[in-house]
Protein backbone atom coordinates (compact mmCIF):
# COMPACT_ATOMS: atom_id res chain seq x y z
CA UNK A 1 0.00 0.00 0.00
CA UNK A 2 1.54 3.38 -0.98
CA UNK A 3 2.42 5.56 1.97
CA UNK A 4 3.87 9.00 2.67
CA UNK A 5 4.99 10.24 6.09
CA UNK A 6 7.31 12.69 7.89
CA UNK A 7 10.40 11.65 9.77
CA UNK A 8 12.82 13.96 11.62
CA UNK A 9 12.86 17.70 12.14
CA UNK A 10 10.62 19.77 9.90
CA UNK A 11 11.54 23.48 9.70
CA UNK A 12 8.02 24.38 8.54
CA UNK A 13 9.07 25.98 5.27
CA UNK A 14 5.77 24.87 3.66
CA UNK A 15 7.41 23.99 0.36
CA UNK A 16 5.90 20.48 0.35
CA UNK A 17 2.43 22.01 0.41
CA UNK A 18 3.43 24.25 -2.50
CA UNK A 19 5.00 21.46 -4.54
CA UNK A 20 2.27 18.88 -3.92
CA UNK A 21 -0.84 20.74 -2.75
CA UNK A 22 -3.05 17.72 -3.42
CA UNK A 23 -1.04 15.64 -0.96
CA UNK A 24 0.15 18.05 1.72
CA UNK A 25 -1.57 20.83 3.58
CA UNK A 26 0.23 23.40 5.72
CA UNK A 27 -1.51 24.05 9.02
CA UNK A 28 -0.46 27.27 10.72
CA UNK A 29 1.28 26.76 14.08
CA UNK A 30 1.37 23.01 13.42
CA UNK A 31 3.24 22.47 10.17
CA UNK A 32 2.67 20.29 7.12
CA UNK A 33 0.25 17.39 7.25
CA UNK A 34 -0.56 14.63 4.78
CA UNK A 35 -4.09 15.03 3.55
CA UNK A 36 -6.46 12.25 4.38
CA UNK A 37 -8.55 10.33 1.88
CA UNK A 38 -6.30 10.92 -1.09
CA UNK A 39 -5.01 8.48 -3.66
CA UNK A 40 -1.29 8.67 -2.83
CA UNK A 41 -0.23 6.50 -5.77
CA UNK A 42 -1.86 8.95 -8.18
CA UNK A 43 0.42 11.76 -6.94
CA UNK A 44 3.68 9.84 -6.88
CA UNK A 45 5.61 12.33 -9.02
CA UNK A 46 4.46 15.29 -6.93
CA UNK A 47 5.49 13.49 -3.74
CA UNK A 48 8.94 12.72 -5.17
CA UNK A 49 9.39 16.37 -6.12
CA UNK A 50 8.32 17.56 -2.68
CA UNK A 51 10.73 15.09 -1.07
CA UNK A 52 13.53 16.30 -3.35
CA UNK A 53 12.97 19.92 -2.37
CA UNK A 54 12.46 19.24 1.35
CA UNK A 55 15.51 20.90 2.99
CA UNK A 56 15.65 18.48 5.89
CA UNK A 57 14.77 15.36 3.90
CA UNK A 58 12.00 14.46 6.29
CA UNK A 59 9.43 13.40 3.68
CA UNK A 60 9.50 9.62 3.35
CA UNK A 61 7.41 7.58 0.97
CA UNK A 62 6.73 4.11 -0.28
CA UNK A 63 4.98 4.16 -3.64
CA UNK B 1 -1.88 71.11 -1.00
CA UNK B 2 0.92 69.14 0.57
CA UNK B 3 4.49 70.43 0.79
CA UNK B 4 5.48 67.96 -1.91
CA UNK B 5 2.73 68.93 -4.32
CA UNK B 6 3.43 72.64 -3.69
CA UNK B 7 7.08 72.08 -4.53
CA UNK B 8 6.09 70.11 -7.64
CA UNK B 9 3.77 72.84 -8.89
CA UNK B 10 6.46 75.47 -8.37
CA UNK B 11 8.88 73.41 -10.38
CA UNK B 12 6.38 72.57 -13.14
CA UNK B 13 3.90 75.52 -13.28
CA UNK B 14 2.71 74.40 -16.72
CA UNK B 15 1.01 71.48 -14.99
CA UNK B 16 -1.51 73.93 -13.54
CA UNK B 17 -2.58 75.09 -17.00
CA UNK B 18 -5.68 73.68 -18.55
CA UNK B 19 -4.89 70.89 -20.99
CA UNK B 20 -6.37 71.15 -24.48
CA UNK B 21 -6.06 68.35 -27.01
CA UNK B 22 -4.10 69.60 -29.99
CA UNK B 23 -6.11 67.52 -32.43
CA UNK B 24 -3.01 66.86 -34.47
CA UNK B 25 -2.36 63.46 -35.94
CA UNK B 26 0.72 61.68 -34.80
CA UNK B 27 2.02 59.92 -37.85
CA UNK B 28 4.41 57.84 -35.73
CA UNK B 29 1.42 55.90 -34.46
CA UNK B 30 0.32 54.89 -37.94
CA UNK B 31 3.43 53.36 -39.44
CA UNK B 32 3.50 49.53 -39.62
CA UNK B 33 6.79 49.40 -37.69
CA UNK B 34 5.17 51.12 -34.73
CA UNK B 35 2.26 48.70 -34.79
CA UNK B 36 4.66 45.79 -34.93
CA UNK B 37 6.61 47.17 -31.99
CA UNK B 38 3.42 47.83 -30.07
CA UNK B 39 2.16 44.29 -30.65
CA UNK B 40 5.50 42.91 -29.54
CA UNK B 41 5.43 45.06 -26.41
CA UNK B 42 1.86 43.99 -25.66
CA UNK B 43 2.49 40.29 -26.30
CA UNK B 44 5.69 40.16 -24.25
CA UNK B 45 3.91 41.94 -21.40
CA UNK B 46 0.90 39.63 -21.34
CA UNK B 47 2.32 36.26 -22.30
CA UNK B 48 5.23 35.03 -20.22
CA UNK B 49 6.31 32.45 -22.80
CA UNK B 50 6.46 35.13 -25.48
CA UNK B 51 8.49 37.20 -23.04
CA UNK B 52 10.91 34.32 -22.55
CA UNK B 53 11.10 33.56 -26.27
CA UNK B 54 11.78 37.21 -27.08
CA UNK B 55 14.46 37.55 -24.43
CA UNK B 56 15.99 34.21 -25.41
CA UNK B 57 16.18 35.41 -29.00
CA UNK B 58 17.75 38.72 -27.91
CA UNK B 59 20.52 37.10 -25.88
CA UNK B 60 20.78 34.10 -28.27
CA UNK B 61 19.86 31.53 -25.63
CA UNK B 62 19.52 28.26 -27.57
CA UNK B 63 19.24 24.51 -26.96
CA UNK B 64 23.04 24.40 -26.92
CA UNK B 65 22.99 26.68 -23.89
CA UNK B 66 20.42 24.46 -22.19
CA UNK B 67 22.72 21.48 -22.80
CA UNK B 68 25.64 23.46 -21.33
CA UNK B 69 23.61 24.25 -18.19
CA UNK B 70 22.78 20.55 -17.88
CA UNK B 71 26.51 19.88 -18.16
CA UNK B 72 27.07 22.12 -15.14
CA UNK B 73 24.59 20.18 -13.00
CA UNK B 74 27.20 17.91 -11.47
CA UNK B 75 29.42 20.81 -10.44
CA UNK B 76 26.54 22.72 -8.87
CA UNK B 77 24.99 19.66 -7.21
CA UNK B 78 28.33 18.76 -5.64
CA UNK B 79 28.74 22.31 -4.34
CA UNK B 80 25.13 23.18 -3.58
CA UNK B 81 25.63 23.43 0.16
CA UNK B 82 28.75 25.59 -0.24
CA UNK B 83 26.96 27.85 -2.75
CA UNK B 84 24.04 28.36 -0.36
CA UNK B 85 26.39 28.91 2.58
CA UNK B 86 28.15 31.59 0.59
CA UNK B 87 24.94 33.31 -0.41
CA UNK B 88 23.52 33.21 3.10
CA UNK B 89 26.37 33.26 5.56
CA UNK B 90 28.88 35.30 3.56
CA UNK B 91 26.45 37.76 2.11
CA UNK B 92 22.81 37.90 3.10
CA UNK B 93 23.10 37.81 6.87
CA UNK B 94 26.41 39.65 7.10
CA UNK B 95 25.73 42.54 4.77
CA UNK B 96 24.52 45.49 6.87
CA UNK B 97 21.65 46.24 4.50
CA UNK B 98 20.71 42.81 3.18
CA UNK B 99 20.71 41.29 6.66
CA UNK B 100 17.95 43.62 7.73
CA UNK B 101 15.34 41.20 6.39
CA UNK B 102 16.76 38.30 8.36
CA UNK B 103 16.61 39.83 11.83
CA UNK B 104 14.00 39.38 14.52
CA UNK B 105 12.38 42.18 16.51
CA UNK B 106 15.44 42.29 18.80
CA UNK B 107 17.81 42.80 15.91
CA UNK B 108 19.28 39.33 16.11
CA UNK B 109 19.55 36.99 13.13
CA UNK B 110 16.44 34.79 13.12
CA UNK B 111 18.02 31.40 12.45
CA UNK B 112 14.83 29.51 11.76
CA UNK B 113 13.77 32.09 9.23
CA UNK B 114 17.23 31.98 7.62
CA UNK B 115 16.88 28.18 7.29
CA UNK B 116 13.52 28.55 5.61
CA UNK B 117 14.79 31.19 3.17
CA UNK B 118 17.83 29.07 2.47
CA UNK B 119 15.60 26.08 1.70
CA UNK B 120 13.63 28.20 -0.72
CA UNK B 121 16.80 29.44 -2.41
CA UNK B 122 17.87 25.81 -2.77
CA UNK B 123 14.57 24.96 -4.42
CA UNK B 124 15.05 27.89 -6.80
CA UNK B 125 18.48 26.63 -7.84
CA UNK B 126 17.23 23.05 -8.22
CA UNK B 127 14.35 24.24 -10.38
CA UNK B 128 16.79 26.13 -12.61
CA UNK B 129 18.88 22.98 -12.97
CA UNK B 130 15.84 21.01 -14.17
CA UNK B 131 16.15 23.11 -17.36
CA UNK B 132 12.44 23.01 -18.11
CA UNK B 133 11.86 26.43 -19.61
CA UNK B 134 8.09 26.14 -19.65
CA UNK B 135 5.29 28.39 -18.52
CA UNK B 136 5.29 26.85 -15.06
CA UNK B 137 8.99 27.58 -14.56
CA UNK B 138 8.83 31.19 -15.78
CA UNK B 139 5.73 31.86 -13.72
CA UNK B 140 7.66 30.49 -10.76
CA UNK B 141 10.56 32.90 -11.45
CA UNK B 142 8.09 35.77 -11.79
CA UNK B 143 6.36 34.73 -8.57
CA UNK B 144 9.66 34.61 -6.65
CA UNK B 145 10.30 38.19 -7.75
CA UNK B 146 6.73 39.27 -7.05
CA UNK B 147 6.79 38.10 -3.45
CA UNK B 148 9.66 40.51 -2.79
CA UNK B 149 7.46 43.53 -3.41
CA UNK B 150 4.29 44.38 -1.54
CA UNK B 151 1.91 43.57 -4.38
CA UNK B 152 0.19 40.97 -2.21
CA UNK B 153 -0.51 43.48 0.50
CA UNK B 154 2.38 42.63 2.80
CA UNK B 155 3.80 46.13 2.98
CA UNK B 156 6.77 45.30 5.18
CA UNK B 157 8.31 43.16 2.48
CA UNK B 158 10.05 45.30 -0.08
CA UNK B 159 13.45 44.33 -1.36
CA UNK B 160 14.88 47.13 -3.52
CA UNK B 161 16.00 46.24 -7.03
CA UNK B 162 19.57 47.29 -6.24
CA UNK B 163 19.74 44.62 -3.56
CA UNK B 164 18.46 41.99 -5.99
CA UNK B 165 21.07 43.04 -8.52
CA UNK B 166 23.75 43.03 -5.85
CA UNK B 167 22.83 39.50 -4.85
CA UNK B 168 22.44 38.20 -8.42
CA UNK B 169 25.79 39.74 -9.24
CA UNK B 170 27.33 38.10 -6.21
CA UNK B 171 25.89 34.67 -7.10
CA UNK B 172 27.01 35.17 -10.71
CA UNK B 173 30.64 35.82 -9.81
CA UNK B 174 30.65 33.07 -7.18
CA UNK B 175 29.36 30.48 -9.68
CA UNK B 176 31.82 31.62 -12.33
CA UNK B 177 34.77 31.33 -9.99
CA UNK B 178 33.51 27.89 -9.01
CA UNK B 179 33.27 26.81 -12.66
CA UNK B 180 36.71 28.27 -13.39
CA UNK B 181 38.19 26.27 -10.53
CA UNK B 182 36.44 23.02 -11.43
CA UNK B 183 37.03 23.29 -15.17
CA UNK B 184 40.53 24.72 -15.28
CA UNK B 185 41.63 21.80 -17.47
CA UNK B 186 38.74 22.11 -19.91
CA UNK B 187 38.56 25.71 -21.17
CA UNK B 188 36.09 24.90 -23.94
CA UNK B 189 33.60 23.41 -21.49
CA UNK B 190 34.18 26.40 -19.19
CA UNK B 191 33.37 28.76 -22.06
CA UNK B 192 30.18 26.85 -22.95
CA UNK B 193 28.93 26.75 -19.38
CA UNK B 194 29.73 30.34 -18.41
CA UNK B 195 28.26 31.66 -21.66
CA UNK B 196 25.03 29.72 -21.11
CA UNK B 197 24.72 30.82 -17.48
CA UNK B 198 25.35 34.46 -18.40
CA UNK B 199 22.48 34.38 -20.90
CA UNK B 200 20.20 32.59 -18.47
CA UNK B 201 21.00 35.06 -15.69
CA UNK B 202 19.92 37.98 -17.85
CA UNK B 203 16.63 36.32 -18.80
CA UNK B 204 15.93 35.38 -15.18
CA UNK B 205 16.73 38.90 -13.97
CA UNK B 206 14.26 40.34 -16.49
CA UNK B 207 11.40 37.98 -15.61
CA UNK B 208 12.14 38.13 -11.88
CA UNK B 209 11.53 41.88 -11.93
CA UNK B 210 8.33 41.98 -14.01
CA UNK B 211 6.18 42.90 -11.01
CA UNK B 212 8.66 45.43 -9.68
CA UNK B 213 7.84 47.97 -12.34
CA UNK B 214 4.34 47.09 -13.46
CA UNK B 215 3.57 48.63 -16.80
CA UNK B 216 7.12 49.82 -17.40
CA UNK B 217 8.29 46.24 -17.77
Layout of strands and helices, then pairs:
The complex is a heterodimer of chains A (63) and B (217).
Chain A: E1 3-6, H1 15-19, E2 24-27, E3 31-34, H2 44-53, E4 59-62
Antiparallel strand pairs in A: 1-4, 2-3
Chain B: H1 3-11, H2 32-46, H3 48-59, H4 63-71, H5 73-92, H6 111-130, H7 135-146, H8 161-182, H9 187-208, H10 210-213
Describe it:
Chain A: Pfam families: Fer4_13. Chain A: This is 4Fe-4S ferredoxin-type domain-containing protein. The complex is a heterodimer of chains A (63) and B (217). By secondary structure, chain A is of the alpha+beta class. Chain A has one domain: Alpha-Beta Plaits (2-Layer Sandwich). Helix content of chain A is 24%, strand content 25%. Chain A has two helices and four strands; from the N terminus they run E-H-E-E-H-E. Chain A has helices spanning 15-19, 44-53; strands at 3-6, 24-27, 31-34, 59-62. In chain A, the strands form two sheets. Chain A has a two-stranded antiparallel ribbon. In chain A, strands 2-3 form a two-stranded antiparallel sheet. In chain A, a hairpin with a 3-residue loop joins strand 2 and strand 3 (31-34). The mean pLDDT of chain A is 90. Chain B is an all-alpha fold. Helices cover 67% and strands 0% of the residues of chain B. Chain B contains ten helices and no strands. Chain B has helices spanning 3-11, 32-46, 48-59, 63-71, 73-92, 111-130, 135-146, 161-182, 187-208, 210-213. In chain B, helix 4 crosses helix 9. Chain B is flat, with a radius of gyration of 22 Å. Chain B starts with a helix and ends with a helix. Classes of the chains: A alpha+beta (63), B mainly alpha (217).
